[in-house]
Design brief:
The chain has about 90 residues and is mainly α. The protein contains three helices and two strands. The protein has a two-stranded antiparallel sheet with strand order 1-2. Strand 1 and strand 2 form a beta hairpin. The relative contact order is 0.13.
Length: about 90
Amino acid sequence: MRTGADRSAELLEVFRLRSEERLRKECTHEVTAAHDAAPSGPHDDRTQRVLRALRSLPVSGKHIIFSEGPDGPGACRRSPWACRAICS
């Protein structure tokens, strides 16, 4: 027998899949170029929406930027936990 909790879980999964699909469509080269040009902002509406969505994801699997030494060089790596790519 299906319960209210089952239905809630189904709806949450539908919402998650639709949100990821929308994020993939909005994560374009223009958005990444806008962020590269001004990483600290201000950002246009589309870039801000993509950043907000990416920031709301769990930490595991996010790309992190760090310095490999006192004066660099900088590097970008995925956090060491298991992950699933959103913008690929």
